[in-house]
Amino acid sequence: MTRMTACVLLVSALWLTAAHGSPVIRQTFARSSPTYQDFPSPQHLTIPFQVPQREPGTASVTVQPDNDPVRNGLTLLSDLPVSQTKGFPLFNLSISSPSVGWRAYYGEIQIYANDAGASGLPQNLSLAPWTMDSHPIFEHVDTPFYDFATNPTFFDAPYNHTERNDWVARAILCYVPDVVVTRQVKPILAVEWGYWIDNYQPHVKEAKQLDIRETWNEHLDLLRGSFPDWIFDAS
Question: Quick one: how far is CA 214 from the chain centroid?
Fold first, then answer.
C-alpha cells in the first residue's frame, strides 16, 4: 500500500455548528503542497482484501473524467449547462466476493477537503478542513456511512462551476463485525481521489491507495467527534 505524498505537521479539531444545530467536527491539517498531474484517461485500481469470518473479496476502483454528464445522470442534480459539468471525475468502487447475504454487507465512509476559493493552486488545500461527506437526503441521519449495502458499488460524481477550486476525497471501505447489530466500524482499505479547477477547467487527480492504518488513525478524531454514538477503534 502507498500513502499520499504529504507531511502532516499539525492536527486540530474545530467544533462547528451545523445548520440543524448539531455539533460537527472538522479536522484541519497543515500539509505539504503536492504537485498535481492531470489524468484524462480512466484510472483503475484492483485491491484484494480479507476480513474476519468472510470470504476474500476484491475492490475494483475506477476514476475517470465525466465526458457524458447526461448519460451519467448529473443533469438530474444540476441545472448547469452540460458543458459546465463535463470533465469532473466519476468515482466507482465495486466489491466482488463469493459472500452472500449478511456476510456481503460493506460500507463506505467518505471524507473530503475543499478549497472553494483556491488561488495560486495547489497551495491553499493544505489548510482546508477534512469534513464528513454524505448524500443531502441523509444529512440528518446518524450514520457515518456514505453508502452501506451487500457487495455494493459506491459511486460519486462531484462538480463545481467556479474559476478555481481544489477538492480531494478519501473513500474508506469498512465493515461492521456483526453487520447491523452494533454501531462498531472497522476499516478495510482507503483510496484517495479528487479534482482541481483552473480557469473554469476541471482536471482529474491521481487515484491512489492509501495506507489504511495511517489513514484511519489520522481521522479518528473526526469520526468520533461527528458520530459519538458509534465505535471507531484505532487500527
Answer: 16
Read off φ and ψ for residue 211, nearest 5 degrees.
-65, 115
- Beta carbons within 8 Å of 64's beta carbon, 6+ residues apart: 41, 42, 43, 89, 90, 204
- What the block records as the C-alpha cell of 29 is 491539517
Give the torsion through C-alpha atoms of 64, 70, 74, 76, to 10 deg.
-160
User: C-alpha cell of 28?
Assistant: 484541519
The phi-psi region of residue 151 (left if phi > 0; otherwise alpha if psi is between -120 and 50; otherwise beta) is: left
Single pTM value for the model: 0.84
92 vs 138: CA distance, rounded Å: 20
* DSSP annotation of 100: -
Question: How confident is the prediction along the chain (235 residues), in pLDDT tens digits per residue?
Answer: 433 333 333 333 333 333 333 334 444 443 334 567 899 999 999 999 999 999 999 999 999 999 999 999 998 998 999 999 999 999 999 999 999 999 999 999 999 999 876 555 545 677 789 999 999 999 899 999 999 999 999 999 999 988 889 999 999 999 999 999 999 999 999 999 999 998 999 999 999 999 999 999 999 999 999 999 999 999 8
The DSSP result for 172-203, as a single string, is EEEE-TTTTSS-EEEEEEEEEEEEEEETTEEE
Q: Which long-range contacts link 136-140 to residues 24+ away (Cβ below 8 Å)?
A: 139/20, 140/20, 140/22
